[in-house]
């Protein structure tokens, strides 16, 4: 449950332009789709995927770190880590299980399956879109667990794209179609309040001191 008084206290520290910007961005945020990346060796690619999520309105990025476990490249992410929720998992099965329980269908992105081309993908179902390593693609475990497969149509000699490029193309296409549809894709009122609180805290310097002062003056 969001403490509205605390949220108002923090937002009063922000400029009106900042608060308005939060609301405008949140209008285009969605959890209807979520993105998952599996054991991406080059961390700048994961960071670039996170940046694409932020730019095109995907609120959550799921990172499976079974083999490589690295930190987000903040220079590539360019601040996106402040605005996108990052969920980390130690195994593909843990990620799949969690996302399935949240109501997502598991969609493997791969150039080697003919299940569905990007333009034909059904956007009505909440979907978790999985992207694999630069070298090996998605693991056999993810491929077995997938409810469907998605590929970008290509007409050249090259069989695949860099993961960050593939993710950007797919995320932009699907979110654009989503915003032009009649699907109920936006965040709920509670989710919006949660993001307003989190983003306000991320925007305020010395937030720990300010937070401590507030709760000392306003004990629960």
From TrEMBL:
Question: Could you tell me which residue ranges the tRNA/rRNA methyltransferase SpoU type domain spans?
Answer: 33-171
Binding of S-adenosyl-L-methionine occurs at: 109, 152, 161
Q: What class of enzyme is it?
A: transferase
- The domain of life is Bacteria
The Enzyme Commission number assigned here is 2.1.1.34
Query: Could you tell me what reaction this enzyme catalyses?
Result: guanosine(18) in tRNA + S-adenosyl-L-methionine = 2'-O-methylguanosine(18) in tRNA + S-adenosyl-L-homocysteine + H(+)
Question: Pfam families attached here?
Answer: SpoU_methylase
Keywords, sorted A to Z: Methyltransferase, RNA-binding, S-adenosyl-L-methionine, Transferase, tRNA processing, tRNA-binding
Q: What does this protein do?
A: Catalyzes the 2'-O methylation of guanosine at position 18 in tRNA.
The Swiss-Prot or TrEMBL record describes its family as follows:
Belongs to the class IV-like SAM-binding methyltransferase superfamily. RNA methyltransferase TrmH family.
- Give the protein name, as stated in the record: tRNA (guanosine(18)-2'-O)-methyltransferase
List the lineage, top down: Bacteria, Pseudomonadati, Bacteroidota, Flavobacteriia, Flavobacteriales
């Amino acid at each position: 449950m969001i403490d509205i008084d605390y949220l108002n206290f923090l937002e009063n520290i922000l400029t009106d332009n900042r608060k308005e910007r939060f609301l405008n961005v949140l209008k285009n945020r969605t959890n209807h789709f979520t993105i998952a990346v599996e054991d991406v060796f080059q961390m700048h690619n994961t960071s670039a995927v996170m940046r694409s999520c932020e730019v095109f309105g995907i609120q959550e990025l799921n990172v499976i770190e079974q083999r490589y476990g690295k930190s987000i490249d903040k220079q590539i992410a360019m601040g996106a880590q402040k605005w996108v929720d990052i969920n980390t998992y130690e195994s593909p099965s843990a990620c799949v299980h969690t996302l399935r329980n949240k109501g997502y269908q598991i969609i493997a992105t791969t150039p080697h399956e003919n299940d569905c081309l990007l333009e034909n993908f059904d956007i009505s179902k909440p979907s978790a879109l999985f992207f694999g390593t630069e070298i090996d693609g998605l693991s056999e475990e993810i491929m077995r667990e997938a409810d469907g497969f998605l590929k970008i149509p290509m007409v050249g000699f090259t069989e695949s794209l860099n993961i960050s490029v593939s993710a950007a193309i797919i995320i932009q296409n699907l979110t654009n179609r989503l915003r032009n549809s009649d699907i109920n894709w936006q965040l709920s009122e509670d989710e919006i309040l949660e993001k307003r609180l989190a983003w306000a805290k991320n925007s305020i310097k010395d937030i720990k001191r300010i937070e401590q002062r507030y709760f000392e003056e306003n004990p629960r």
